[in-house]
Amino acid sequence: MASHWRKWGIVRAIRSRNRGGSTAAAQAYNVVMEAIMNEDVFNNSIRKFLKTLGVSAQREIEKAVRQGLAEGRLKGNEKFPAKATVTLGGIGFSHEIKGEIELE
What we know:
The chain is of the alpha+beta class.
């Protein structure tokens, strides 16, 4: 029976938060979410992934550009459109970032 009431409290906190509920409801929601997942583990995991992504992507881009320069395919003053897509399997999340990489 206690499990039923705990679940109902979670549902109420989520509903209240989604409707622009009170600060108390938001705090209750945060407590519930903390109990469901460990925020520190989650945030550290994201940071580790993004650091690995950034370092490895930079290395590969540098390698490709240097190879293009060495083979004479690039002059060294180009600008390249760039796009990165991050996806999370299992939840249907996809985020695309567009930008530009300049050589000069």
